[in-house]
Design goal:
Structural class: mainly alpha
Number of helices: 5
Number of domains: 1
Shape: globular
Distance between the termini: 47 Å
Largest sheet: 3 strands, mixed
Order of helices and strands: HEEEHHHH
Strand content: 5-15%
Number of strands: 3
Length: about 140
């Protein structure tokens, strides 16, 4: 069975729009801008990755705007210097939670069918980048500057 990730992406876009959010494809990295209620997804990525990234960004939106009993409200990571391990672990925790909440919404609420193994590979790749960032020391950051 072939999976049409462009169609799945559009289903997620519709879910975002129902929450009052716009979704745009652009050349920048994927992000959710809460001030503008806009999610930007990198258009240079493969359709499956764009779908995974939108699922993740939607997870951030849902945690903030429609929290459930499973969503843990953490202290704002912005309260700490960005180089502290407290800030970094809060960011990592938030990123993992967004992946989980986006996945839950896509599979249980929207009932979307997609390759779960491919999703887990994308999720692992992006979480690994945050974990790597978390473990970098100030000296390593300065040496790479």
């Amino acid at each position: 069975m072939s999976i049409n990730y462009d169609r799945l992406f559009k289903r997620l876009v519709n879910a975002c729009e129902r929450l009052g959010w716009s979704v745009v494809l652009d050349d920048i990295d994927s992000e959710a801008c809460f001030l503008e209620k806009k999610i930007t997804i990198s258009k240079s990525k493969a359709p499956s990755i764009r779908f995974h990234m939108l699922m993740h960004e939607l997870g951030h939106v849902l945690i903030e705007e429609l929290p459930t009993s499973i969503d843990v409200k953490r202290p704002n990571s912005g309260m700490h210097k960005t180089t502290t391990s407290i800030h970094k672990t809060l960011v990592l925790s938030d990123e993992c939670a967004a992946w989980d909440r986006g996945y839950y919404h896509a599979t249980s609420v929207l009932r979307l069918k997609f390759d779960k193994r491919l999703f887990e590979m994308s999720r692992a790749k992006y979480i690994k980048t945050y974990a790597s960032w978390l473990l970098r020391t100030k000296k390593q950051i300065l040496d790479n500057a």
